[in-house]
Every structure is written in C-alpha cells, then in structure tokens.
Amino acid sequence: MSAIHSNQLKHTLQHIIKEQAKLGECKELLLKYVDYQADKGFPFGEILILHYQMFNGGETNEIYTVAAAIEMLILSFDILDDFEDNDFHGKPWRGAADLNATTALLFSSIDIIRKTSFKHKEKAISSLLDFSFRAINGQHLDLAKTSNTDSAYIEMTLKKSGSLVALASLIGTILAHSNCLEEVKKYSQYIGLIGQINNDLIDVRIWPFNNDIVNKRYTLPIIYLLNCKNVHVNLM
Predict the structure, then answer these.
(1) What pLDDT score does 235 carry?
(2) What are the helix (H) ranges across 115-219?
(3) Which value, in Å, is the radius of gyration of the alpha carbons in the chain?
(4) Percent residues over pLDDT 90 in the chain
(5) Which of 129, 168, 178, 205 would bridge with 44, disulfide CB 3.0–4.6 Å?
C-alpha cells in the first residue's frame, strides 16, 4: 500500500483521538501510541481500505475513519499481548495507566464505526466481534503453551493472527457490498499465518530481549529446531 494511505491513517487516528471527548485523560497516552505505531505502519487499516476498493466501495473519506478504528482495535490487542508476554522493550507502554488505556481503544473502535454512515456498518461490527473472539481464543491457546506440534501451532496461529487479518479484510469487503466472502476469509487467515511465521523467525534471533527460546514459547521455528537432530544452529 502507498505512503499516502499510511499518512492519511495517522492523521485520521490523531484527529479521532483529539476530538473524542469520551477518551478524556487517555488522549495523551493514545497519541503517543499512534506516533510509535506510525513508524511500523498501519497494515490492518491498509488491507481494509484495499478490500473496500477491490469490491468497488463508494468514494468516501469515512473509510479512513473505519480503518483507523480497526488500527485502534489491533493496537489494543498488541498492548495486551505485550503485557501477557512481559515484552516492553522499546515500547511506549508498560504501566497500569497504559493497560487502562487499552480499554478506551477497544470500546472506541466500535463506537467510531457505529457513528459512520455506512449502510452495512452493523454487519461489519458483528464481523469485528466474531473475529475478535476467535483471535482471543487463539491467544489463549498461545498463552497455554500447548501448541507444541507444527499442526497445533498452525491451528492456533490461524485463530490468533489469521483472524485479525480476516477481520480487517472482511470489514472492508462488507462495507463495500454487504457480503462476508468465504474466500476472502480463507486467504486472509493465511496472510496472517505467514506474517506470524515471519515475525517468529525474527524473534528467535533476538537476544536477550523477548527471545522465544529463553521465554519457552512454542513457535514454528522453535518446534522445527526441537525436532532437528545433530544440527548446529547459530542464533546470534
């Protein structure tokens, strides 16, 4: 996606946060999060916009508002994930106030979509809730550290990461023409799976912060290494 979409999403997020009276004292923290996230990009908002355009959604700047709302939702999940994994290195969140701010992000994302003029916004919110719960269930499996085979890992990751990509893709699709397409859901879940495997390949080489081996996490690269015999692997 283009830098134009990324810049537009950043400005939209900043505008929403500044204008949302309900966010109250959380605004300063949330704006700090947006600045941090902007350096990484806004892939979920961008994939939502892409699918809205793919299915010939009408021209409207409100699609950026929805995309920004989804980025707020994803950010709340990212922050919660870091608290669950105790992974705060280089992150702008680490305390109780930051944890509280995630609640504002969660509820704001739904409130923002509901206030748009899209015809199928309630159907989009229903899909958001459905795939959010799927992702939460996937995260629970990850935290349980029971996905210690390649098939179990793939099943868990399709629920955890795949559901979040599917959520973004399907909301863009639904807002464009109402239907929740099975093929969009399926390939989006695999995009999420591939993205997570790529992240895991990076994480296995990080030392010493958040190293998956040190923290005894099962990821596909680690499952592969555990099943390799007489293979010397340089992790440094």
Answers:
(1) 47
(2) 121-144, 150-177, 182-203
(3) 18
(4) 65
(5) 168
